[in-house]
Amino acid sequence: MNELSIVILLAIALTGVLLWLLVPRHKSSRMAAPSFPSNVNDALPSAKHYGYFPQIRQALSAADARYLRETAPPHVARQALQERRAVARHFLKGLHEDFSNLARLGRIIAAHSPEVSREQETERLILSLKFQLLYSLVWLRLSAGNLPLEQLEHLTGLVGRLATRMDAAMAEISALSAGQLPRGLQS
Amino acid sequence: MNHLESALYWSSLSFEIVLCGFVFTRKVQRILPLFAAYTCVPLTCAISLWLTYEYFGFTSPIAGYAYWGSVVLTSAARSLAIAELCRYGLRAYRGIWALVWRVLTALSIFLIVHVAVDAWGQPNGVAIYGVTLDRDLALVSIVILAVLLLFRNYYGVALEPLQRAIAAGICFICAVDVIGDTILRNVYTGYLFSWFLTSQKAFWPALRPQVERVNDIWSAVHLSCFMISMGIWCYALRKPVPAPSERPVLLPAEVYRELSPTINLRLSTFNNRLVDLLKP
Questions:
Q1: Is the ipTM of this complex over 0.85?
Q2: Within a domain: residue A28?
Q3: Is the Cβ–Cβ distance between A89 and A49 less than 8 Å?
Q4: Range 224-253 of B in CB contact (< 8 A) with A
Q5: From B151, which residue of chain A is nearest by alpha-carbon distance?
Q6: Which residue, A48, A144, B118, B144, is the most exposed by fewest CB within 10 angstroms?
Q7: Is B103 within 8 Å of A118 (Cβ atoms)?
Q8: Using CB atoms, which residue from B139, B157, B158 is nearest to A11?
């Protein structure tokens, strides 16, 4: 590939990325600032999906799978197992959303801070990129059927604990910023 | 100038006058003075070029120098308008602005040094030098805008509609310039290279029609696309410019100092758990 093709492709790719970034993500055209929502509790990126894990675990339990294999006709059992994997994937997607919300909280705090640390921001960026990669790998393994569903439980427990800690963190923000945020931003 | 060139020249001049009218009617100079200045530069250049062509002739060497001078001047004004876009709105977020401006400045310095080195190494000829400089500056503009928008998206600080339209217009004309200049430079340094060598003066009469044709095509494409960009800006300015957003309320510094390491530690733990999950 000569220089001509490289530069032209690079320009097209960069322009595509730039135009994609220019597409507004919010319905309101005046959403210029990532303001804290009117209620701090709303600002908390709640980890809601992990809360459904007991039901998911029951639906995806190994005993259920064994029972299906033993009693149901093969094609019904196969279909049911496929559907179980699909449910697990949806659940994993929900956990991804929980993680993203927690990471977003970090970015919102950084945006609203009068000073930020380069190391902290770089570290968070790297952690988020690493998470995306690992999440893709877990998703692929889950889709391929060689990831034990039980392992999701550990992951879920972690997200749950994270959410609890973030609850405490937001309470701390509220306490620290009391009197400094506009009235509408305080809970 | 032939009929096509005249038509394009006068229509782009009309567009530039309309754009300047919009810019100053909407008082854009109060919020984006460098962008307002950028919109005046092509108009000033067009009038100066017209006077040069009238006085020295369209095909004179001085007209050529004046043309390439106006191209570089427009690129410089565009770069300043982009710098203003970078600063606009983000400056109120003192913490991330301190981070962003350093990254953008370092990137700009690196890329501009690359531009200088790339242009310096070109074969003799103002046209080749000018095309390379214009192409590289346009590419730098796209990269800087892309990085700026990545930062803004990452921290959730969206551009306002007018600034978004300005960025889209700049991006479009820069992309066209990069592609067009790359093709033009390839033609100049390829089969038209004899045109730039005094040792091959004998070929010049035969090459003249081809050089003029290439220049005509590029001028037509560039002016047409620049009119599209101006159309984007005029469309964004059809309504009065809304007042700038209110300054954000910042949190006390200790909130970040206390919470950021904790959040990163938790995210790191989460990643470790994912790694464990993947172990056989």
A1: no
A2: no
A3: no
A4: 242, 245-246, 248-253
A5: A21
A6: A144
A7: no
A8: B139
Per-residue pLDDT of chain B (280 residues; tens, 9 = 90+): 677 778 888 888 899 999 999 999 999 999 999 999 999 999 999 899 889 988 888 778 888 888 888 888 998 899 999 999 998 878 888 889 999 999 999 988 888 888 888 777 666 666 777 888 888 889 889 999 999 999 998 998 888 889 999 999 999 999 999 888 888 888 888 777 777 777 777 777 887 888 878 888 888 888 889 999 999 999 999 988 888 777 888 888 888 888 888 888 878 877 777 777 676 6
How many other CB atoms are there within 10 angstroms of residue A179's CB atom? 8
Instruction: Give the closest-approach CA distance of B54 to chain A in angstroms.
Output: 36
Backbone angles phi, psi at A158, to 5 degrees: -65, -45
Contact B160 A113 (CB under 8 A): no
**Class at the top of the CATH hierarchy for domain B3-247:** mainly alpha
Q: Is residue A21, in this structure, part of any structural domain at all?
A: no
Of B95, B174, B183, the CB nearest to A116: B95
User: Which domain range does residue A61 map to?
Assistant: 49-178
Cβ contacts (< 8 Å) between B137 and chain A: which residues?
none
Separation in Å, CA A3 to CA A9, B186, B190: 10, 9, 13
| Residues from chain A contacting residue B154 (CB–CB below 8 Å) | 107, 125
Nearest to A113 among B183, B253, B268 (CB): B253
Contact with chain B for residue A111, Cβ under 8 A: yes
Identify whether the C-beta of residue A101 lies closer than 8 Å to the C-beta of residue A84: no
Residues 6+ apart with CB under 8 A from B125: B188, B195, B196
Name chain B contacts of A106, Cβ cutoff 8 Å.
259-260, 263-264, 267
Tell me, yes or no, if A151 comes closer than 8 A to chain B by beta carbon. yes
Please report whether residue A19 resides in a domain: no
Please check whether residue A4 touches B, CB under 8 A: yes
- What are the residues whose beta carbons fall under 8 Å from the beta carbon of B12, sequence distance 6 or more? B42, B46, B223, B226, B227, B230
Question: A159 vs A89, A154, B271, CA distance in Å?
Answer: 16, 9, 11
Domain assignment present for residue A129? The answer is yes
Structural domain count, chain A = 1
